[in-house]
Amino acid sequence: MQQSKKGGEGEATVDVQFTDLPNALIACKVPEDLFNGGTRQASFEALFRSFDPEVQLQYFKSFRRVRISFSDALAAAEARLRLHKTDFNGKEMRLYFAQSVHIGSPRLEPPKPDKQFLISPPASPPVGWEQSQDATPVINYDLLCAISKLGPGEKYELHTATPTTPSVVVHVCEDEHDDSSAQDDSDHDDKPRPARPKIIQTRRPDYMPGIKQ
Prior knowledge:
Largest sheet: 5 strands, antiparallel
Number of strands: 7
Strand order of the largest sheet: 2-3-1-5-4
Structural class: alpha+beta
C-alpha cells in the first residue's frame, strides 16, 4: 500500500493504492454452530455480500475459521474496517487479511540437469561425460610367493610392529589329515593325499501312486 501527501493551505489529499493488499479475509474463532448451515450461516454470509455480491466463503470446521474471498482488495479492506471486532450473535468477530504466499513459478519446474544420469532409469548423460575405466587390480607377487612356500603351522610377517601400529602376520592353517611325517610342496607330487570322505546324498522316497498330494 502506497500513500502520498500533497501539502497546501490546510488541505491534504491521500492517494491509496490497494493493489498490494490481499482480496481475502480470515474470520477466526467463529461459533461452531455456524458450520451446521441454516439461518445463522445465511446471516453471516449476508454481512459480507453487502460489500461484494460475488463474495465466496470457505468454511474450515476443524480450525473454526472461515475464508472470505472478495473480487477486489478494496471490498476486502472495507469489510474488515467495518466488521472487525463487531458483535455477531453475542460473540466478537475478528477478521484478518489472508496472507498470500508466492513460491516462485506457479508451475512445477523440472529438476536441474546436473546429475540426472544417476536417476533410475537413467536418462541421457550430460555433454562431455565419459565412462571411467576401472583401475587394474594390484597383485603383490612377493606376498603370493612367500605364502606358497609356507607349510602348515608356519607364519609370515607382512608388517613389522611399530610403537603406534601392530604387526600383520599371515598364518597357514594346518592340514586336518596331518601326520608325523610333514610333507612340503615338493612331496605333494610323490605322495598321494588321503581320499576325502564321499558325501552320500539323501535317497528320494519311492513313488507311491495311491497317495494323492
